[in-house]
Amino acid sequence: MKQFPEYKKLFRVAVLILLFSIPIAFSYAQTVEELNDKINQRNKDIQALEKEISSYQSQLVGLGKQKTSLSGAIQELDINRKKLGADIVVTQKKIENTNYKIEELGSQIGDKEDSISNHKDAIIIGLKKTNEFELDSLPEIILSENTFTDMWNDIDNIASVQESVEKKIAELKIVRNDLENTKQATTTARDELVLLKSKLADQKKIVDQNAFEKTKLLTETKNSETTYQKLLANKLAKKQAFEKEVNDYESQLKYILDPSKLPGKGTLSWPLENIYITQYFGKTEAGKRLYANGTHNGVDFRASVGTPVMAMSDGVVAGTGDTDKQCAGVSFGRFVLIKYNNGLASTFGHLSLIKVGTGDKVRRGQVVGYSGNTGYSTGPHLHVSLYARDAVEVKTLPSKSCPGRVLTQPISPINAYLDPLYYLPAYNG
Fold this sequence. Notes:
This protein has helices at about 5-65, 70-135, 140-145, 150-220, 225-250, 285-290, 420-425, and strands at about 275-280, 280-285, 295, 300, 310, 315-320, 335-340, 345-355, 360, 365-370, 380-390, 395-400, 405-410, 415-420. By secondary structure, it is α+β, with helices and mostly antiparallel strands. Helix 1 (about 5-65) packs antiparallel against helix 2 and helix 1 packs parallel to helix 4 (about 150-220).
């Protein structure tokens, strides 16, 4: 027969098991502290870099308000290069931080699982001993040397330990599940940051392109402001001539707009993370100066070179291209035409880098390119034209303004152009 002192031993064993995790927790706390120190330091670095990036952005906005000049164009290229470089460093530090957090969460999960296993062992021992006690006959219990008081005290102690351990296991299971969910969320965040790092690598390519453009600009102008202004004037004249060609061509196209095939107001999402409109759709003061027909056929958004440009809804890429390869400085430059599933289509113009190809399916919010200063552009920005989906196509257009050249770009009947702001979220700028 098992004597009641056996249960006292069990009680002491259970207590020891409960206390066993203390050295582990103490050891792990030092690791957590080290990881948190690294995370905090990188957060400080990130804050400092973001402040630097904000300063670059303010400088770019200030340059955009100044009269276009050679020195301003060169300065803009230099500032953009610095800004994009800082963006890359910020992303790298964010990736490091996320990795530290995942390492910390992984260690916590492992320790909690070990602790749960220890407590389960204690429960098994307790249940086994309790079962042995219940199998003892009543006469054996009465004849035992223990008093009834001691016996019930031992039983109470065992029951208390079992209840405590079971409660602890239930709590730790909740904690473990929560930590696993957090780890998964952090892993997802790390994947997103890796993706962002890839995007910033694309922006580094854009910086390299800008460096090439800077060299080209200095070569063409021989670092002369007078020569630069003459180049700008010639570029504007050529652009206006081409704009008239396109307008005359599109005016001859026949199209019956069916409003029932168009979605409702506010259907689209913004193509940029930060929104500031620099030119509206329709007849505007800038439109009278820059466009042959006096009408701006889209909306212009402020966007420094290398700003991610996102699809405004789900759809399919209907065409991409670069008009600068055919006739520099007269049209969209690098462009992406997307036909959305909701009856609309849009062209993103003046891009620095294109990230999609014709036929690609895109999702709302997916990065399809990066803003830039290609085509006819007096400064970095994003141009968005919106159309009825079935009215626009990428077509070729022989150009009189660029003799012997055939331009390929989105073409649409005049009455199929739509005001993007009607379909975008409310703008409070």
